Amino acid sequence: MKRVAKVFLAVLMAATMLTAAACSDKTPAGGMGGGDELPNAQTAVTVRGALNTVKVLQDEDINSLRDAALSFEAAKGETEGAQLVLRAEADTAYDVTVGALTSAAGNTIPATAITAYALKYMNISSGFTGFAAGAYPDAMIPLEYIKNAKENVLYKGKNQGLWFDLKVPENAAAGVYGGEVQITAGGKTIAVPVKLEVYDFVMPEVPAATTTYLIWRDWLIDGELDNSIEKYEDYYDLLLEYNSTAYYFPAEIGDYDGFVTALRKYYGKVAQYGIPYVDKKINGVKTIDFDVFKNYLKAIAKASTEDEINYFDKAYYYFDQVYDEVNDAKFPQTEKVIKETNEAEQAVISELNLTGEIANSVKDIRHVIPVITGWQDKFEPYKNDIKLCPIFNNFSSTENLDMYADLQKEGYDFTSYGSANFWPYAANLIDDYMITSRDLFWSRFDYGIEGDLYWNVNAYCNFGTALPVGYGRVPDHYTSPSRDGITAGDGYWLYPGRAYGSEKPFPSLRLTARRDGIDDFTYLSVLEQEYEKLADKYGVSGENIRTAIAEMNKQIYATGISKLNFEGLQAARRTVARLIEMAQSPGGVLLADFSYDENGVNFAVCAANSAELKINGETAETSATATGDGKTVTKANADYPDGGKITIAASGKSAELIVGKAYSKAIDLSNEENASKFAVNTANGSSVAYGDGTQAAHGATVKAVLAGKQFDNEIQTKGYRPYVRFGVDGLDGLEDLSFWVYNDSNDDLKINVIARNDSGVQYTVDSVTLPANGWRKISVSNFTYISRFSSELRKIETVGIDCANAPGTKNTLYISSVSVKAK
After folding, report:
1. Which has the closest alpha carbon to 147: 501, 652, 522?
2. Would you tell me the crossing angle of helices 217-224 and 10-23 to the nearest 10 degrees?
3. Quick one: which H or E segment has residue 349?
């Protein structure tokens, strides 16, 4: 999290920005300047479609994109997006007409449910993310404002993206709807078909994922010439439309009545809210004003009593000016503030004689504590007072995931934060994939991470030490991508509406991707809740529900890193939606267990006794067993089905579980000669041989002895890592590579999973701890991570494992069952 001192005075900045407005905001970037006539050439216009997880650059060839069509799939009450890309052979104006959608049953969704946006492009050459320079789409301007500014022009040889958001009414009937959007350009009208499928369930009003997105009110002045509480509320409400919640309610700090008014207005719409604070210094050290703090607690307690609603149950603390990215040096002050907060809470409880649920909820309010590294031991006494908030990069290794899972079992809660980043991590930046930010929420759900934190959504001024003048105004918010002199887009997801005469700000594609990711998270949460109820009904264990859901998500990400599986994300989302429909239907279908590996496919499907349950089109009644108030069909190590899908059907509903192709042996270790495919550094004392048969739980093995060595050069001693590697062909065509490793030692052993290219360059792709005297399966499926280092996966020649060099020691490992799964 970046922390920048807020040094702006509103009056001074207003005067400065009034001058700046004459230079930049009077005429929006790329505009025609108001009175000019729009070009109207009679010319060929190409219209293509693209997935809503794809960014199409302004100069990109669009011929390979999809046929022109808009396709939406959404629950009742959900907003979903789709996009078109236009390109003309000469300058010409364009317009868009949206029509109503109708179903075969005669149901209608009005045209007003669809909002059309024109995408604005940023020329980016920073190179921070490693992506190619170019004009990237980001700002989304409602078409009415584009037309008022006379910017509705297709320029010769340039792409113009159009984004369409469709808000499905909550009372819409489920089913398939059709209609069209008309594009008028180049002297002709092009009819683009629109298809909408409304899923048969209602999207909860309150998202399942929590968000802490900061609006820096001081910086509103730089984009809007207005940082009033009313303008702040415009920004707060816009975030709310995108499933996101700013830290503070729209109320002046210290206005306790205004805060309670906002609390009552927004409480039923948000997953959480932050309690405001005022920071101050005591003896040069920042802390908070606990008098103000206690007044907020008292105001919430009073409202809770009056309204008979426990308003504390969604509250949290984030004292960002006191603790942020806590390290060893910052811990003592963080600990002090946590203790003082607990004391202040108890003082309010005692003063107001709070008891029962309200008193317990006050004591249960947690601090969101951002941390960079993986150390958590110092927080052990305060684990019930905090939500640890690591940067999400920390969730990109098996070793760290194991650590966080253990901490969760010990009672820690987690959220996470993102900042300026680079591929393969979700970067929040303009020159990055859209899908990475969306995929984050799938992995967050599976890892038990409840939310997301981001330091600022409205950096409307230049900031940061990389700039020659430090803080300063942005010449044009729509054409100036970097506010810190390094990255494109860090610190802002919104654009000032003032530039186009709008009272409200405008969203970006990056914020939209997060909205959709939060919706996906809510889908997964709804499914889990439905399954927990059905598990009770059928009397089956619910312990595998979350792992079954996570198994469906394997095609989307691996160790927190997106697989860039654009079609796979759509398919997984559709599967989750269908399973929700089946769970809520009279058939009450529950996927109680689901997994697939080198041994086959495993699943357990429960349904109501009245439902005719079918698996891959065949009635499953004969193999069902009675469980509670229903029946269960179980399969263990079943063959992979043709087509790579398992279809479950009951009560007129169906869902497809994607399992893909079966695993195959990459190295046949039943043939002793294949031990020669494994390599170690024999010159340094390591050895490899065919297994001696002592460890055969997973079949024949290769025995590798990794020897440590003392070199004459201490740097070389520390840098050397004994290894065992083996070759696997066709990594570019694999979905997964797995093998089993036995650690023949009384101590756990930390290893790295490695990949080596044809130039001899080696990369670490995962870190894993092998249990003492035990087996562990190693899975490599994040090939997009490997491709970060090698643009062509086929250049990776070997994979394997290595460990730290410990001179004078030898680690004996047995490797078995090297299997691959093709895409």
Report:
1. 501
2. 30
3. helix 331-352
pLDDT value, residue 28: 39
In the numeric block, which tokens belong to residue 310?
A: 């426990």
Tokens of 90: 């000469």
CB atoms within 10 A of CB 480: 16
User: Which DSSP symbol is given to 109?
Assistant: E
Tokens of 488: 């494109």
DSSP annotation of 270 reads -
Identity of residue 633 = V
Comparing CA positions, the residue from 590, 242, 657, 245 lying closest to residue 450 is 245
* DSSP bridge partners of 110: none
Q: What pLDDT, in 10s, does the model give residues 544-558?
A: 899 999 999 999 999
- Residue at 450: amino acid letter: E
pLDDT in tens, 453-472: 999 999 999 886 544 444 67
- What b/e readout covers 404-426, taking b as 16+ CB neighbours within 10 angstroms? beebeeeebbbbbbbbbbbbbbb
Measured between its terminal Cα atoms, the distance across the chain in Å is: 38
Q: What is the pLDDT of residues 573-610, one digit of tens each?
A: 999 999 999 999 999 999 999 999 999 999 999 999 99
Q: Which two tokens stand for residue 547?
A: 């792992």
Per-residue pLDDT reduced to its tens digit, 400-424: 999 999 999 999 999 999 876 777 7
Q: How do 386-390 and 810-822 pair as beta strands?
A: unpaired
CB atoms < 10 A from the CB of 678, how many? 22
- One-character DSSP codes across 19-47: HHHHHTTSS-TT---SSSPPPB----EEE
Contact 95, 184 (CB under 8 A): yes
Q: What is the DSSP letter of 312?
A: G
pLDDT score recorded for residue 795: 77
Residues sharing a CB contact under 8 Å with residue 96, sequence separation 6 or more, in sequence order: 116, 143, 162, 181, 182, 183, 184
Helical ranges in 267-397 per DSSP H:
290-307, 331-352, 356-364
Best CA proximity match to 552, nearest among 571, 533, 532, 538: 571
The residues, any chain, with a CB within 8 Å of residue 61's CB and separated by 6 or more, are none
* Residue 803: count of CB within 10 angstroms of its CB: 20
